[in-house]
Design goal:
Structural class: alpha/beta
Distance between the termini: 13 Å
Number of domains: 1
InterPro entries: Acyl_Trfase/lysoPLipase, NTE, PNPLA_dom
Organism: Algoriphagus aquimarinus
Mean pLDDT: 87
Order of helices and strands: EHEHHEEHEEHEEEHEHH
Protein name: NTE family protein
GO molecular function, one term: hydrolase activity
Number of helices: 8
Strand content: 15-25%
Helix content: 25-40%
Number of strands: 10
Keywords: Hydrolase, Lipid degradation, Lipid metabolism
Radius of gyration: 17 Å
Length: 267
């Protein structure tokens, strides 16, 4: 059905937990809800770019499972990070070979953090791959990505669910968050303490944006998965899919978007 209704989807960061976004997208599209614009941070930027390129959620999952992501990392000889992300660009070029925002089937915006200016930077035009790398550049672990004169790190530092690029240009905003933390009775070591504290801070900047969303999808229990636990990829996909199908059943008004949206707009 042809319509001018515009639907935006904002995808949060969350490491490997971002694979749950694929299950969410599968459930939404199966229900006839197709985004006309996508925004994302970190893992959400990566998933968003692949989805906007035209890969199905199942195809993206297969690529993630079959690709040894970490072989593209190499030690960084610097004082700003342990690893360099430059060679990760070679991986993205296999699947985003045009390296151009304008060549995506669906418009995409990715968020990164300008570490010198302490500001969020949004990228939606020009070269594609380096902004994606910047958006997922974990500070302290990776060297910052330099674009122009800006030194950029993970967008989740300041905006882990970028709804702002969707405001005023879409009729409805669907926020998708993959970093919900369970209650913890005992933080047993320093590693867990630091990881939990960082995620709590990132979650705060997500929840302050929740009111900007018409629908907010947050599959529970994802906090029990490690940030780099790629072996759980299929399970994470299933959690996102099952929860979203249940969410749609319990929030039937979201299906009004399906009757008004236009699948042909992304073909």
């Amino acid at each position: 059905m042809k319509s001018n209704l515009k639907i935006g989807i904002a995808l949060s960061g969350g490491g490997v937990r971002g694979i749950s976004h694929l299950g969410v997208l599968k459930a939404l599209t199966e229900s006839g809800i197709y985004p006309t614009k996508v925004s994302g941070t970190s893992a959400g930027a990566i998933v968003g770019a692949m989805f906007c390129q035209g890969y199905t959620p199942e195809e993206i999952l297969k690529i993630i499972v079959e690709t040894n992501y970490f072989k593209f990392l190499r030690p960084a000889i610097s004082l700003t990070g342990f690893l360099k992300m430059d060679s990760v660009g070679n991986l993205f070029k296999l699947y985003l070979d045009h390296n151009d925002f304008s060549k995506l089937q669906i418009p995409l915006t990715v968020a990164a953090t300008d570490i010198k200016k302490a500001k969020v930077r949004y990228y939606s035009e020009g070269e594609l791959i380096r902004p994606i790398m910047a958006s997922s550049c974990i500070p302290g672990m990776f060297d910052p990505i330099v674009i122009g004169k800006r030194y950029l790190v993970d967008g989740g530092v300041l905006n882990n669910m970028p709804v702002e690029p969707l405001e005023g240009v879409t009729d409805y905003v669907i926020g998708v968050h993959c970093n919900q933390l369970p209650e913890e009775s005992n933080v047993s070591n320093m590693k867990k303490l630091i990881e939990r504290s960082v995620i709590m801070a990132m979650n705060y900047n997500v929840y302050t944006r929740k009111s900007k969303c018409d629908y907010f999808i947050e599959p529970p229990g994802l906090g029990r998965y490690g940030v780099f636990d790629i072996k759980k990829a299929s399970e994470l996909f299933g959690v996102g899919y099952d929860y979203t199908m249940n969410y749609i059943e319990n929030n039937p008004s979201i299906l009004e978007l399906a009757t008004k949206s236009n699948k042909s707009s992304i073909a």
